[in-house]
Design brief:
heterodimer, A: about 375 residues, mainly alpha, Serine Threonine Protein Phosphatase 5, Tetratricopeptide repeat, 17 helices, about 80% helix, B: about 575 residues, Clc chloride channel, CBS-domain, 3 domains, two-stranded antiparallel ribbon, elongated
Amino acid sequence: MKYPARTIAAVAVVIVGLASIDQFLARTEMAEVRNSADRSWRQGSLLLRQGHADAALDALRNAHSLARDNVTYELDMIAALVALGNTDEADPLMEEVLQRKPNDGAANLAAARLKVKEGAVKDAEAFYHRAIFGDWTGDTAARRRDARFELVQLLADRNSHQEMLAELISLEAEADTGNDPLRLRIAHLFLVADAPSRAASAYRSLIEKNPDDAEAYEGLGEAEMRLGRYPAARAAFVQVSYRDRSRSVAPRLILLNEVIQLDPTPRRLPTAEKYQRSVRILALAKGDLEGLLAQHQGSATAQTGLLLKYATDLLASKPHSITNELAEQNLDLAEKIWKERVALFGVSTEPGEEALRLTMEHLAS
Amino acid sequence: MSSENRGAGTRSFETKPAYDSDRTLIVLSILIGVIVGLTTVAFMLMTGRLAARMYPPESAAWRRLLIPVLGSLVSGFLLFRFFPNARGSGIPQTKVAIFLREGYISLRTVLGKLTCCSISLASGIALGREGPSVQIGAGIASVIGRRFGLSSANVKALVPVGCSAALAAAFNTPIAAVLFSLEEILGDMHAPVLGSVVLSSATSWMVLHLLLGDDPLFHPPAYKLVHPLEFAIYAVLGIVGGLGSVCFVKLLLNIRLWFRKLPKSTVWVQPVAGGLFVGALGWFFPGVLGVGYEFVDRVLGGDVPVKAVLLMAVLKIVATPVCYSSGNAGGIFGPSLFVGAMIGGAVGSTAHSLLPGITAGPGAYALVGMGAAFAGIVRTPLTSVIMIFEMTRDYSIIVPLMIANLVSFFISKSLQPEPIYEALALQEGVHLPEGASREHFAGIRVEDIIDRDAPLLPVAAGLDDARVFLTNRACNSWPVGDGKFVHGIVAMQQIETAPGGATMLLDLVPLADDFPHVHLDHAASQVLERMRGGGVDAMPVVSRTDIHELLGVVTLSGILSAYQTEAGVH
């Protein structure tokens, strides 16, 4: 079978011509669309960073509609939606991104933030972990670390200290020994995670490396305070005041002095001194509870009445000889009064009562 | 009137059937798929880019008024002066070409359609690009078929091949394109060109993907059925979609009728009325200009307030009929989808605000609304279901789509019985065969018209006896054989021009295996095609297991009287 050669040639020319035109048009279109999308994205992400999520959303929507395969644009759009609380719209978009890129670190981090916004904290934690172990572009270690810090912050906000501690231990293990600011941040977070001994250890290693690090000394002071090692805490705060006068550690030093002067537990403390301290502690505890009862009329119970009466009697009594037992008796009663106070009115947060609180907590431990 | 119109119904362009074979049709189907795919992509990119430059969203309002007016003025003049057949959508013109002009569409019409539509769509006229793409694709197929010297029957067969290729590339929906060609263009879901139509559609779709990648036309959110009660809301959407479709179609037909009554001398300037109208609307509402798919995408995303969605639905229902009826070049596919998305978005938003706990977001309704309006306006319910399915690639949307589409289809059919393309052709004075009647005639089969008692002309018969036999039967040809054993077919012309040595039919009709024949299960239309191909007016009906075993004879007069009887009944 023969086909007309001229027709075939003409058809071939038409195809080549059309293909060239199409290529040109498609390239032009794609380039223009890409540029336009990029412009919109830059504008949108800037607005988003500035906190104008509403205005950012329009620009990011435009960027996304022009370049739907660009995950960065879509994730920023989802971030804007999340910032505006529009999780209904963000959810299907997020699902779609995760279907396309299930192991993408940025996508999983965005999903975690979305879940946080929706209040699904357990799901959020799972997405944070996927983000931490996901694929990242650029500085993978830094991105993973940032994701883990974000998770730590979430856990801190929820007082999930055990989980937080687990994440912090991983962060500490992965942290570059030369990266002092990072190690300092981790040490601070150990304190938040209620792990003062780990925090103290982290601060000490930082101080070993840089003995002039006032911030580390300050952290160490806080950690030692939490551990009830008040003299060591005071020593650390004194180092801060030597090294960086801009840091206001005077209130801490005053408090620690008060606590140290109240502390009846040091070894080799003379019995007379221990007794005097126990009397002061009992008087403070009694005064504290009486003050609160006066503020909250009708809160008193039979138990409080008895305790306060007993305390008044003890404080009024003049013992013939001062013994350790008498001191312990005072402290024991002070603890009972403190427990009653905590049961009735909670733990004190007043700065003026902090010395008593620390002392009582120290005694209890 | 153009040469194309002058030749209506009688035109028989020169044919050289030397290349008519299945292999040729397959090769040409692929070729048409490639060329139509490339042309459609170029057309879409060109109109899209030009539109973005002509009236960008942030441009001054005067531009949105001036550009459509200028565009319609230029395209109106070109349409009047050079390309009268490129006016309007292109679907009715394509159907006219298939059913009345042996598939003839001129190259001038193709070029005219491409040029005029590019101008009008790039200038913001509120019409679609898919209908014109179908005519362009059909035209390219017709031109290629003729250039390759195919018979008029095969050129005609290639026209739907071009249609499906165009639609596959324009909508990125290859299956819906095939269905549309069969359901709307041919009106026969069992058309014998199915293979070629599928081939060209697939080829064109591949071209689209090679050039533009796998980006669907719309980007709806993932569909979710929240509660079974939603099916009832989708039925309500079908009702609203159907009513909206009827408004759209009636408005378009009535405005067009009004324009047709204006003096002929105003035809060239009439499109300006459309341009002015849409430009004035565009001054205040830029979203009404052009195809408007970006706005549809936003509505599908569910982030457009219900008031804006309703307003756009009303504006488009008015703007598109005015643009179309005033004679601008452009289609109504795109506007149908636009109107449907707006109606669906409005219904969905209302339902979601009233029953938030049991309804999906408005995007899902906008999507189903698109299908409902398409089914109501274009009257192709199956195509619309598959099209939306292909656009979303989401199987779970099928049931709501079917509910809304069928409700819309039946409402539209009962309130506006004449389908839009047939009604448009009728306004031109052209009576297109309706799908139902085409299917009906396709329903006549050989077994209905076979003459089982008709004898064969004996191979031993003398030529004079054969001449008398044919004269008595009033036929120009007849099967020749022995008892029930068929040798072949003899034509009167063979007898008249027989060589001197020939004395009996056996001398003229040697035993052969490739004589024209049909089987009992063939449709009458296929018999006619074979009669035409073989140049005979009677054919043996033979067994499928033995080509020489005679079952009876069918004649042209038998088929015609069957058509007459059926037409009388219906």
